[in-house]
Amino acid sequence: MSSFTVDIVTPDGVIYHHQAKFLVASTQAGSLGVLPNHSPLISPLNIDAVRIDLTEEDGGSSDWVAVNGGIIEIRDNVVSVLANSAETEHNIDVSRAEEAKERAEAKIQKAKETKDHDIDLGRAEIALVRAVNRLNVANKRGRN
Asked: Annotated Gene Ontology MF terms (predicted)?
């Protein structure tokens, strides 16, 4: 079976590097599935989980990474994800993600109730999506 390399990079450096047999990512054009020898492509990513199916030599399980947008590039059997932030399922601090979710929900509720223009509703909604994404990925632990 052939495979490809997956690199997920943030401003802090490489957070994920592995061989894979399949990858699924959510792009702004829709869901993208990647197999070995995929055609070259560059696309913006949504805030969502990236699923990486490992090769049989690596146990054949799936890894999950919470990606907060960015860009995916596919070229020469290398999938590169460049993101402002991303966390593997094992590195997510669940209590911190839950606190972020609660803070975002409270800001959204306050903005809607008081019509407070000082609260940036758009930023609060994005913060909520990011927190929920992180929690969803953290919940994948051990389910491979």
From this structure: ATP binding; proton-transporting ATP synthase activity, rotational mechanism
Residues 10 and 81 both lie in one domain: yes
Dmax (CA) of the chain? 58
- Tens digit of each residue's pLDDT, the chain (144 residues): 599 999 999 999 999 999 999 999 999 999 999 999 999 999 999 999 999 999 888 778 999 999 999 999 999 999 999 999 999 998 999 999 999 999 999 988 887 787 766 667 788 899 999 999 999 999 886 554
Q: Do strands 62-75 and 78-82 pair parallel, antiparallel, or not at all (unpaired)?
A: antiparallel
Residue pair 90/8 in contact by the 8 Å Cβ criterion: no
Q: Are residues 122 and 100 part of one domain?
A: yes
pTM given for the model: 0.87
In a domain, 112, yes or no: yes
